[in-house]
Specification:
Mean pLDDT: 93
Number of strands: 0
Distance between the termini: 14 Å
Number of helices: 4
Helix content: over 70%
Largest sheet: none
Low-confidence stretches: none
Length: 58
């Protein structure tokens, strides 16, 4: 049950903050999809939060 709660929390954050993100779209157009994804994971505060939540799945 804990796993389901963690996944729902991450999905909720992504739905609220990441859907339609201007920075992700800008980086994707300017530097490519791979750069945009890496930016979200390593530099974006929301991405860092999602990453920390995801560590709870291990």
């Amino acid at each position: 049950m804990e796993r389901k709660k963690v996944i729902q929390e991450a999905e909720s954050i992504m739905e609220t903050y990441c859907k339609g993100c201007f920075l992700h779209q800008h980086h994707k157009e300017e530097k490519g999809r791979r750069f945009a994804h890496r930016f979200c994971i390593t530099q974006c505060t929301v991405g860092k939060k999602i990453k920390s939540i995801g560590k709870g799945l291990c």
